[in-house]
Design a protein that fits this description.
Length: 105
């Protein structure tokens, strides 16, 4: 609460903007669709129809790319066709995840 306005601006505008762009690239690489208007610390993507559910895609990414993505079904039935990416990971980690996922897509 005692941080300067500049600190908040840097965190909210630059840092998370860059993370968001990487997360969007991950979703696009996985052929997921998403609403650009989403806000917050997570980015949700709708999985392609060729996967039976979000667990199938999450398992593929985990076992083939060694990257964990959150399958939406853990949040209930309405999340079954979605995956969730966290913007809490730093840019280096998101960039590495993107490169690994590119190799399996």
């Amino acid at each position: 609460l005692n941080n300067s306005d500049e600190w908040h601006r840097e965190m909210n505008i630059e840092l998370y903007k860059n993370r968001r762009q990487l997360a969007e690239k991950i979703l696009k690489t996985l052929s997921c669709t998403f609403e650009k208007s989403q806000v917050g610390m997570f980015l949700w993507g709708k999985i392609p129809d060729n996967y039976k559910d979000s667990g199938e895609l999450a398992d593929k990414v985990l076992y083939q790319a060694k990257v964990f993505i959150t399958p939406g079904f853990i949040f209930g039935d309405k999340g079954n066709r979605y995956i969730r990416l966290s913007l809490c990971a730093n840019e280096k980690m998101l960039g590495e995840a993107l490169e690994r996922i590119k190799l399996i897509s």
